[in-house]
Amino acid sequence: MELMTIIESDAELQALFIPVERWLTVLAVRNHSKHTLSAYFAGVSQLALFLRGKQLTWTRCDKRQLAQHISQRLDEDKLALASVQQELSAIRHFYGWLIEEGVARINPTTGYQLKRSPRPLPSIADIDLLTQLLDQPAPDTPEQARLWLRDKAMFELLYSSGLRVGELVALDVNDIDISELRVRVTGKGNKTRLVPIGTKAAAAITRYLPHRHLWVEQLDAALFISEKLGTRLSTRAVQQRLKVAAARAGIAQNLYPHLLRHCFASHMLSGSGDLRAVQEMLGHSDISTTQIYTHVDFAKLTQVYDRAHPRATHSKNNDD
């Protein structure tokens, strides 16, 4: 039975969800994304169902009940640790709001921690492979050659400025300042930032712009236009075009837009070592998110060390 059907058939469960709906409405007004709202609703809903089964309210949920719920999600529902962590985050935020509203006095998640699963290191492509992608010759047919002008501009910008694919397709023509070599990006939470553009990306965009009018519908301000619809290109279309370009360049590695962002971050940190600057360019609110790229660089250093140092692979038995 679907969750909404269960809620509609249970008056006490409906009462539990009234503050949840109010909370999500507040978050929507604060420009939280639909994805975030959906994830928060899913996480809090599971605790609501648990509390209903125990005949408890939000204010009667303490650390012991929370621990029982989390244990059930892990052991009985076989939910992955990372997914349970997301649910716990939603519950923590919800109780924070309940306290702000004067509905609850205690947040049961305070001091409650799950063992964090290690964050996997992002995949990185080397510079030679990116050169193979970006410097490939244009297709022979005029229409495909024009498409490649657009696609090359997109891929150059993704790698040059470390944009998320959603940020890329949200760009308008006026967001690009070729003369100042910068782009105005609207990121998560509708926060804007200015990010430098490399000269190769600027040149690719300059070559693309005169052809944009061939596809664009009137009054559409989008920078990157769908050749089929005449409107703003979708993130899925960017993913598909990148796969086409990789195949045409003879690249076997799986390429996807976020990989180019990973490459930007890793290569920038490797070349500059300026973690704060890279954090600003990526639009990370928390520097710990950016720090993962220092681990990528250190992993590379470790590989070089293991290959090059004469004593790197010696066993402890050989120590004097």
Automatic annotation (TrEMBL):
Residues of the Tyr recombinase domain: 120-306
Keyword entries, A-Z: Cell cycle, Cell division, Chromosome partition, Cytoplasm, DNA integration, DNA recombination, DNA-binding
Molecular function as annotated in GO: DNA binding; tyrosine-based site-specific recombinase activity
Keyword Hydrolase in annotation: no
PROSITE patterns: CB (PS51900), TYR_RECOMBINASE (PS51898)
A biological process term (GO) from this entry: DNA transposition
Subcellular location per the Swiss-Prot or TrEMBL entry: Cytoplasm
Annotated InterPro entries: CB, DNA_brk_join_enz, Integrase-like_cat_sf, Integrase_catalytic, Integrase_recombinase_N, Integrase_SAM-like_N, Tyrosine_recombinase_XerC/XerD, Tyrosine_recombinase_XerCD
Domain Core-binding (CB), first and last residues per copy: 14-99
A Pfam family reported for this protein in Swiss-Prot or TrEMBL: Phage_int_SAM_1
UniProt-annotated catalytic positions: R164, K188, H258, R261, H284, Y293
A cellular component annotation (GO) from this entry: cytoplasm
Tagged with keyword Cell cycle: yes
HAMAP family documented for this protein: Recomb_XerC_XerD
Function: Site-specific tyrosine recombinase, which acts by catalyzing the cutting and rejoining of the recombining DNA molecules. The XerC-XerD complex is essential to convert dimers of the bacterial chromosome into monomers to permit their segregation at cell division. It also contributes to the segregational stability of plasmids.
Family to which the UniProt record says this protein belongs: Belongs to the 'phage' integrase family. XerC subfamily.
Subunit (UniProt): Forms a cyclic heterotetrameric complex composed of two molecules of XerC and two molecules of XerD.
Protein name from the UniProt record: Tyrosine recombinase XerC
Organism, as annotated: Psychrobacter urativorans
